[in-house]
Each structure stands twice: as structure tokens, then as C-alpha cells.
Amino acid sequence: MRLEFKKSMSRGFTLIGLLISTAISMIVVAALISSYITVKNEYNSHKDKTEVEVKELLVKSIIYDFVKDVGFACKFGYFNQDYYDSTADSLDNYFTSNSAITIGQLPFPSGSSFSGALEKDCSGECFQAGTDYIMVKKEESHTELNAINALDTKLSVNSISDISVGDYLLLCNKNSINLVKASSINTSTNIVGLSRAPQSTDYYPGDYVGKYSLEILYIRDTGQKNDDGQNIYSLYVYIKGNSSTGKSYELVRGVQDMQVEYATISNGNVIWNSISTDTAIDTIGYSAIKVSFSVDGRNFSKVVNL
Questions:
Q1: What integer is the mean pLDDT of 152-179?
Q2: pLDDT, tens digit, for every residue of 84-97?
Q3: Residues spanned by the domain of 134
Q4: Is residue 7 part of a domain?
Q5: Considering only CA atoms, which of 154, 103, 20 is closest in space to residue 278?
Q6: Angle at 240 between CA 239 and CA 246, to 5 degrees
């Protein structure tokens, strides 16, 4: 009897110990799961914050470079001459305005070629309504004339290495600027054939010939939706530098609500002005612009001194 009692006692203690061990293990596992969830949430929060900050810095860098890298290296400047569209492509007036930086509201007027160009190959809204754009004109490269062009359809230049058929070229002298289009390239003679002769003035050896590009920075609908069913917008750039249809490229996803303001000075104070119409920033002499935007719901801004 004594032996059986001891055996029963031994089995009882073993069962109790097992229950206690199991309970402790469950508590430990629950604590580990709770800690894991907390760490995971903190990681995801930090990861999301880091991604937003990376996008913020990238967008600010793009805006700065976009606004600062503009214009043409013509020794006479490019503000005071008469402009002529000699491409034979009937381009918008934007192409031959004397401003290298123009800001405005979307959408473009219905008569503008850009109203359709920005919507090419996109689905959804294409551009985000109520936002602003930044348009710049710039050179991709340049060379000089090495012979007189007396209003004819041939340009003899120092280098044709960067010029292709269909490219737009900017001819510049003291009095006139002609936007022309390359229709042929002779690599043995460095002669560029033009679709139409320049207008108004002769050009001489040493005069500027720039490979032309017009670019627009804007917000566009990607055609996709997030987990909440909302449209996903991105920062895009539209580029047109030749007779083919311009093309838009996605730069940074998750960017929207771009607004552009320009600075004026009143009684020594800086006043930020919203856009009410297309505004040529550099020709009027405004000192700076401020570009506001949002990334995944967080608001940012970038000031660029001109």
C-alpha cells in the first residue's frame, strides 16, 4: 500500500509540473509574439517613414536640377531677340517664347497640343486636376556654324555628333532666334539639311546652334490604385525635342498635389504668389519659386532661388 501511494504521489507531482511548465511556456510564447508584433510594427513604421523621406529628398533634388539646368549657351543671351518657328511643324507658342522657365496650371488650354500630349499612353485621369506644372526649355548640346547661312536650308556646323534627323535646333544671333528642324545629316561634310529655311536674318560662322528640348514636370495618374482603392499618382516628366511625339516618363511614385508659387518682394518682405495664369518666371525677374507637394500623405516644399 505504501508503495502504491508513493507511486501515485510521484505521478501527481509530474502532472502538476507539466501543467506549470506548459503555462509558463504559453506565457513566454505570448510575450514573444507580442514583442515580435511590436518590433514588426515599429520596423514597418520606420521603413515607411524612411521610404517617404527618401522620396522627399529625391523629388526635391529633381525639382532643383530641373529648374536650374535650363536655357541656351548663346553668347547674346536668349531673352531679347525675335523668335521664329521655322520647323514647318506648326508648334505651340510655348516652343518659341523667350522664357526658359514657365509655370502654369493644369490642364492646358484645349487648343494646345500639350492637352493631348500629356494624355498619350495613359489610363485614368492622366494628369492630376488642380495641380501646377513647370515647363523648361534647354539645350542638350550645342555647336557653332562654320559657314554663312543666308536664309537657306543648309547648316554647315563644327560637329554633328549629337544631331539626328528630326531634331529641333535653335539658331541664335544678336537679333533673331530660329527654331529649325533637321531633315538630313551629311556626316562627311558636317552639313545639316533643314525642313525649312530660317527667317528674318542671316547667320554667320561662330553663331550658336543648340540641340533643343522642351520638358514639363507634372503630376500624372499611373492608372493604378492603392489598397484603399485610391488613384496612385506620380511625378512625371514630358520631353519633346524633335518632330516625333513627345513622351512622358515616370520619375517618383506616390507624389501628388504639386503647387508652384513665385516670390515677390513688398516692403522688404517675401510674398509667395499662387499661379493664376501661365507665368514666364525668368523673363520677369522673379527671385525664387516654391514647389509644394505631398508624398504618401505627408506635405513638403522646396524653394529654388533663380
A1: 96
A2: 999 999 899 999 99
A3: 62-305
A4: no
A5: 103
A6: 85
What average pLDDT is seen over the chain?
A: 86
Q: Which long-range contacts (CB under 8 A, 24 or more apart) does 75-80 make?
A: 75/208, 76/172, 76/173, 76/174, 76/208, 78/170, 78/172, 78/177, 79/282, 79/283
Fill in the amino acid letter for 168.
Answer: Y
Residue type, 111: G
C-alpha 183: how far from chain center: 30
- Structural domains of the chain, count: 1
Candidates 263, 260, 259; CA nearest to 286 is 263
pTM for the whole structure:
0.82
Does residue 168 fall inside a structural domain?
Answer: yes
Contact 74, 210 (CB under 8 A): yes
Cα dihedral 79→81→85→91 (10° resolution): 20
- The reply to whether 131 falls in a domain is yes
Residue at 142 is within a domain: yes
CA distance 251 to 264: 30
